[in-house]
């Protein structure tokens, strides 16, 4: 199973990019993982919140295949422990899924069209994090999930 992380906009903090890259590299031992950055929209001052979500949604949907299992990282999504998340990953792999796509939206969230396309919604916390931090957190959790599945000593209970 391939895993893709789709993100809106670039990370402007080199430290966060470097930390995220640590887990991206580690994940290569377990699965094919790619992070795809959708460039920030231009001229957003002329767009209201819904117009911006709609335009970002069109870009997100253009990067998703019909056969992909799409998971939105959304504040209203289901919260899982790290162990439960590893089981979530295993369940997706057991179905013979070709590609699992995690999506981090823009500053205002997702358009209705993206919500309709989603197969699942997960929340990393009830707290709000910057989109750049969410990239690091989900990448680390995917890595942690694979180490749990392989009974490796990274995760402690």
From TrEMBL:
Q: Which SUPFAM superfamilies match?
A: alpha/beta knot
Report if keyword rRNA processing is assigned: yes
Q: Which reaction does it catalyse?
A: pseudouridine(1915) in 23S rRNA + S-adenosyl-L-methionine = N(3)-methylpseudouridine(1915) in 23S rRNA + S-adenosyl-L-homocysteine + H(+)
Q: Which Gene3D superfamilies match?
A: 3.40.1280.10
The record's EC number reads 2.1.1.177
Q: Does the keyword GTP-binding apply?
A: no
> Where does the UniProt annotation locate this protein?
Cytoplasm
Tell me the InterPro entries matching this sequence. Answer: Alpha/beta_knot_MTases, RlmH-like, tRNA_m1G_MTases_N
Q: Which UniProt keywords apply?
A: Cytoplasm, Methyltransferase, rRNA processing, S-adenosyl-L-methionine, Transferase
Please give the Pfam families that the UniProt record associates with this protein: SPOUT_MTase
Source taxon at top rank: Bacteria
Q: Where does S-adenosyl-L-methionine bind?
A: 73, 105, 124-129
Which CDD domains does its entry note? RlmH-like (cd18081)
Q: Which family does it belong to?
A: Belongs to the RNA methyltransferase RlmH family.
Relate the assembly described in the record. Homodimer.
Main function: Specifically methylates the pseudouridine at position 1915 (m3Psi1915) in 23S rRNA.
Q: What is the name of the protein in this document?
A: Ribosomal RNA large subunit methyltransferase H
Question: Corresponding gene?
Answer: rlmH
